[in-house]
């Protein structure tokens, strides 16, 4: 704890101020204390700055130490801005607060003390997010379901009854309702009779678990190390496991003898006591949700106790249908959207949409759209050397081809001029700054066009993990191509168009830009050492860039819809396939008017045709 701050006036208990060490969760608590007990009682900005630096630790202190070199008033203001930018971003605080809540250990039985702690954490979480106007995140079904899954099975059933009563009163379950429910269950569990009931229940569970241990070599009450990273947490909470593809999760589970139902070691699927089925897309198969794929096969991690089962074609009709499906496959790949009129969303899709829509705003003539991270992008690993090796390999290639080198410089300088990318400020080069992820890049040449395009390699791996796997996969929100082609033939005058550099018109929040860094030479001079740059817009090669660009396009139509004819607005919503538009108009005069108005509409969202 810090030195004691004395309060002027009547004798009051002494207040000990807490430090800020760079953890976003402690930012608002520290700022409120500092403003109340220091900033409001000191009039000199130079003293305020010295106190501010004194009460900072670790990376927070390192971030603002240089401000002492500035004029007092400017230095203090700058220090406050740095702290807020690095450690006080509302969406980061909200995300970390919720993740801290979700990281609570699953309850094996009703424990009054643990339930009370959970209720207190939920109340604190609600206060923090309400102050930052993030109540929609609190009351989302995703948040409520993740908390309910932490509860023991009997309480989950009680909550279902509680929600049913709310529904009868035409009310929706909320975070506050769930908090009240857990708090009430905690009071009951902590009462004399509640403890009596739980004591007998806990004794029964211990006895049962001991039996399971002797039979299966597995006990749910034993604390086991994660088979992925060897830390003390369940594998379904492991960041390294969560960033794997579904196929790699299956492979890891099979290699480590992990049950596909509960993701625990020591027993087989047919011996697992858990009866839960996968609910992703109404799957209904007996495997964990983290192992769900669109075409999950029935895989077991041991020889089945029943006779071997083989799939055979029992009639000619089945064989013909199988051949027909094989013939159809290549065409389905090319025109997959033509057969997907009913696009059901997975749980991951819904989470990704919520993250992106919640982090979308319009300012300075551009849309700013968040990156849908699967987990908080701490990115504590440093892949600088990997990116530098790729850059040196590129240097060898450019040294042999002067023409290619010139085109590469022209492409990168164009991005800097248009502010699609920027040089990383020195303060952000500190080793503690997160997120930090370096993307290699390469040249893409189109024989039909003279220009060269520099594309970031978001699939490049470091420690076996590419950046693309840290982001929710691209969602297919584009309009079906077949519908666009058919409607294109309706009228007499055809109008094809496209949005110029569509991905580059959508900006990335400042808090996410460090995850799109790349190495390049200042002004393309390869005799210098490499400098660090970062994208300010969404990069080519990222899995979710088309989805985010399409979202910005639709938001443009939505925001400015009142100023334009409905036909123009509907065209933006229904006749764009990514950045290409196809539409037909009855007459030339109508076509001229249409082109003028749709160009104006798109320009207002920085989507230039």
From TrEMBL:
Name used for this protein in its record: CCHC-type domain-containing protein
UniProt cross-references to PANTHER family, sorted A to Z: GAG-LIKE PROTEIN (PTHR47331:SF1), PHD-TYPE DOMAIN-CONTAINING PROTEIN (PTHR47331)
InterPro entries referenced in this protein's UniProt entry, alphabetically: DNA/RNA_pol_sf, DUF1759
Pfam hit, one: DUF1759
Species of provenance: Schistosoma haematobium
């Amino acid at each position: 704890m810090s030195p004691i701050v004395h309060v002027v006036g009547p004798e009051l208990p002494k207040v000990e101020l807490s430090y800020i060490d760079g953890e976003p969760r402690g930012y608002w608590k520290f700022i409120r204390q500092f403003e109340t007990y220091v900033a409001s009682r000191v009039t000199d900005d130079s003293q305020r700055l010295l106190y501010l630096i004194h009460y900072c630790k670790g990376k927070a202190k390192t971030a603002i130490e240089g401000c002492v070199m500035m004029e007092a008033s400017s230095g203090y203001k700058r220090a406050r801005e740095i702290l807020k930018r690095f450690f006080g971003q509302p969406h980061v605080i909200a995300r970390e607060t919720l993740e801290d809540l979700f990281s609570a250990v699953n309850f094996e039985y009703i424990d009054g003390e643990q339930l009370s702690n959970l209720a207190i954490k939920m109340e604190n979480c609600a206060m923090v997010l309400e102050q930052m106007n993030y109540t929609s995140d609190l009351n989302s079904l995703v948040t409520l379901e993740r908390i309910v899954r932490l509860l023991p099975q009997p309480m989950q059933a009680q909550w279902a009854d509680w929600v049913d009563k709310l529904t009868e009163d035409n009310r929706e379950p909320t975070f506050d309702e769930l908090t009240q429910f857990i708090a009430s269950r905690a009071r009951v569990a902590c009462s004399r009779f509640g403890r009596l009931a739980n004591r007998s229940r806990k004794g029964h569970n211990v006895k049962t678990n001991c039996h399971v241990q002797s039979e299966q070599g597995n006990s749910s009450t034993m604390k086991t190390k994660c088979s992925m990273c060897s830390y003390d947490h369940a594998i379904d909470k492991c960041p390294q496991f969560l960033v794997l593809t579904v196929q790699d999760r299956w492979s890891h589970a099979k290699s480590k003898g992990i049950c596909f139902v509960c993701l625990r070691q020591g027993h087989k699927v047919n011996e697992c006591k858990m009866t839960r089925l996968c609910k992703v897309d109404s799957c209904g198969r007996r495997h964990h949700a983290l192992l769900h794929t669109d075409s999950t096969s029935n895989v077991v991690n041991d020889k089945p106790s029943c006779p071997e089962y083989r799939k055979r074609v029992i009639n000619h009709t089945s064989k013909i249908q199988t051949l027909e499906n094989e013939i159809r496959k290549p065409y389905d790949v090319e025109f997959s959207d033509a057969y997907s009129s009913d696009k059901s969303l997975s749980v991951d899709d819904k989470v990704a949409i919520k993250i992106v829509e919640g982090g979308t705003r319009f300012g300075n003539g551009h849309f700013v759209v968040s990156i849908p991270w699967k987990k908080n992008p701490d990115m504590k690993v440093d892949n600088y050397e990997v990116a530098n090796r790729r850059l040196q390999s590129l240097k060898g290639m450019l040294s042999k081809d002067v023409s290619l080198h010139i085109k590469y410089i022209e492409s990168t300088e164009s991005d800097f001029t248009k502010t699609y990318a920027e040089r990383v400020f020195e303060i952000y080069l500190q080793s503690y700054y997160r997120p930090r992820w370096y993307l290699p890049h390469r040249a893409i040449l189109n024989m039909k066009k003279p220009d060269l395009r520099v594309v970031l390699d978001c699939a490049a791996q470091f420690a076996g993990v590419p950046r693309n796997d840290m982001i929710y996969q691209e969602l297919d929100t584009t309009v079906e191509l077949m519908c666009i082609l058919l409607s294109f033939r309706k009228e007499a005058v055809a109008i094809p168009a496209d949005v110029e550099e569509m991905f580059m018109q959508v900006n990335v929040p400042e808090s996410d830009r460090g995850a799109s860094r790349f190495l390049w030479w200042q002004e393309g001079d390869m005799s210098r050492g490499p400098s660090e740059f970062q994208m300010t817009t969404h990069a080519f090669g990222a899995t979710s860039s088309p989805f985010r660009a399409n979202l910005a396009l639709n938001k443009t139509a939505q925001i400015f819809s009142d100023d334009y004819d409905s036909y123009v607005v509907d065209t933006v919503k229904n006749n764009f396939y990514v950045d290409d538009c196809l539409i037909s108009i009855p007459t030339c005069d109508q076509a001229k008017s249409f082109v003028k108005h749709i160009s104006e509409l798109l320009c207002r969202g920085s989507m230039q045709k």
